[in-house]
Specification:
Number of strands: 13
Oligomer: single chain
CATH topology of the largest domain: Rossmann fold
Number of domains: 2
Shape: elongated
Length: about 350
């Protein structure tokens, strides 16, 4: 039975695609082992999904103080050498990287061992680990055509990022009140929350029949929900949406950040207004949003410009232009890549057999 090492962690954006690919590998009869950290979400999500997790101690390097960078570099080197030793015992058929600093040691160990390395890069701008090691990868699985320039010619495939089947299965919304879904991710976004709060009087004054579904995150839930109840607006404010595909299905327009959510927007074929998180590594959220805007699938607004007035004006504009709204949704659907997890697993199996 072939063993595949899954490298990457820290956030759900790195871990969830890896779990999806791991499940496909398991269905094909392969064994899977994740490498991650104690403090990352992988410590909870990977065992819950039924997979083994080998823990390492490693931290980020970019944007940190000198002493912290020195400590992180030392841990990177020491954990890489430990991974080299472990790979000699495990004898993995290939290493699959979802990126992030957690992927550093197993990726470097794979290169030192001469093992096949397959990376998944879901962003238009690759993360630092994938950029540093890009020239040596066996295969690179990408979500945007422009990402191919960061990897050797002939080694990329436009597979997309694994997305739950429920997003692809959504039917086009054709009736009911015009609904705007606002989500800043599971932790929420102060910028998006405040802009929504500022916009309610404007919608009320204009008499625009808009309904809101708003995921606030934990920190601002109490204040936002209280103000929403007194605003007289129609809709619901929630701390966390447990069934996000269902929320997508009820929405005519999605207002959100532009990280991993853009893959779900594409799968659902929904028009969107994207407000990139300004402190995302290497501005990858901005690059994602720009790619969607170029494709005609989304409107882009910078975080510094996003407020209640702009929110109101952009929603009103799209509300009054049903043709454009429909065209944006169709353009988003054209960016979707169904079967990404299955294809990634097939490529890993092919790579292992060829080695």
């Amino acid at each position: 039975m072939s063993l595949f090492v899954m490298a990457g962690g820290g956030t759900g954006g790195h871990v969830i695609p890896g779990i999806a690919v791991a499940r496909e590998l398991s269905r094909m009869g392969a064994d899977v082992l994740f490498v991650g950290t104690e403090r990352g979400v992988e410590n909870r999500m990977v065992p819950a999904a039924g997979f083994r997790l080998e823990k390492i101690r490693v931290g980020g390097i970019k944007g940190l103080g000198l002493m912290t960078r020195i400590t992180s570099l030392w841990r990177l080197l020491s954990e890489t050498m430990e991974m080299v030793v472990q790979f000699g015992k495990w004898e993995p058929a290939a290493v699959f990287s979802m990126g992030g600093y957690v992927a550093g040691p197993p990726v470097l160990a794979a290169l030192l061992r001469g093992l096949p390395l397959v990376v998944m890069e879901p962003n238009a701008m690759p993360g630092v680990t994938n950029r540093w090691t890009g020239r040596w990868v066996t295969r690179a699985l990408i979500s945007f055509e422009e990402t191919a320039r960061f990897f050797p010619e002939g080694r990329t495939e436009l597979t997309g990022r694994p997305v739950r089947d429920e997003f692809f299965a959504l039917s086009p919304k054709s009736d009911g009140e015009f609904t705007v879904l606002i989500t800043g991710g599971s932790q929420g976004s102060r910028t998006l929350n405040e802009a929504a709060r500022q916009s309610w009087p404007l919608f009320r004054q204009a008499g625009l029949p808009v309904r809101f579904i708003h995921q606030t995150g934990t920190q601002m839930y109490e204040s936002i929900s209280a103000d929403f109840r007194s605003s007289g607006m129609d809709g619901e404010v929630t701390e966390f949406i447990t069934d996000m595909p269902a929320a997508f299905g009820r929405a005519d327009l999605i207002v959100c950040r532009s990280g991993g959510t853009v893959s779900e927007i594409a799968a659902a074929g929904k028009p969107s207004i994207l407000i990139p998180y300004p402190f995302a590594a290497d501005q990858h959220q901005l690059r994602n949003a720009e790619a969607f805007e170029r494709a005609g699938a989304a409107r882009l607004s910078l975080d510094k410009d996003w407020n209640g007035q702009r929110f109101f004006e952009m929603v009103r504009e799209l509300y009054n232009d049903g043709v454009r709204l429909r065209t944006m949704g169709e353009a988003a659907r054209h960016l979707a890549r169904p079967g990404a997890a299955r294809r990634a697993a097939e490529i890993l199996m092919e790579t292992a057999r060829a080695n």
